[in-house]
Amino acid sequence: MKTSICAVFMLVVAAIAAAQTTTEPKAGSRLMEMFQKLDKNGDGKLSREEGRSLTNFAEMDADKDGILTPQEIGTFYKPKNSSPIPKSALTRDAIENDKTPPFPSPDGFQPEDLPVGDPGVSYNDPEFLPGGARMTFVDQRRRVWVAELDPMTGLTRSKTGQDILVGENWAPFQYSQNGPEWCLDRQGAAVAYTLLDTQGVPQLAMARVGAKSAEPVRVLTSGPQRNFSPFGSLWAANASAWLAYAHGGRAYADYFVRLCDTAKPDKTFDLPYYWVGSSAPRWLHGTTRIIYPRLVKMDKIEIASYDTATAQSAILTDDGGKKDEV
User: CB count, 10 Å around CB of 251?
Assistant: First the structure.
């Protein structure tokens, strides 16, 4: 039985590798079906035990963590230099000096850009608390702040907006992939962000923010694996906020999306069949649900939701295509 499963699997991936420019839908569907058969616990990844019949398991396991994902299989058999976007267009200089004009508004609306805060302060990746009274951001010294805003104008109430210091040692974008994010629950507002531990590994941190100051920073994760890019739930009726975050190896797209209750950060689980490389999952405000792109077949990504209150996942769309942005 083991030999036959391995033979079928290798025939499928060989067929995919033979297609030099794209994955054939039929072959991709067969590959996904085989993956799901081997994935006995349905968590969207293969352990060494589940994938023991795959003779090239170690070769496809890019980060050598003993876990095989659909993304690692796809990357292993992906044709070289197949990206339609030239690398020269993805450099920092090319992005910062892009002169492409903005798409015109159908009704002729012209936005008015108003400077916020002090020109001497960097406001990296600002995020606004629902209601518009506060903003969290990172300055040029990698410090995380909360600014008090005038909701009527959106301007900072103080000159710099550096009103409440939340924490320091924010991990730069190449490690964190986002700035600080708001969380809401019955205890009030909190800010979660990525910092670097003493070994230079990205870890999750969080601090409660009161009226005039922030509580001491709690580091929620540890260990040699990356934990980064948190997104917090925004429901004031929740007993405690939840975080969705990336967890995984060294490569850019070598990770899972993991969920945890911030009151019990050591109790974690992965979003089932989250499609790595797409946009980050999004919490629905005022609910316990998170929306994310879910891999249904190798050539089909649908939008799904996961409810932390019921531990149930539901696929919301079923019209084909690759919906990798939510």
Answer: 14
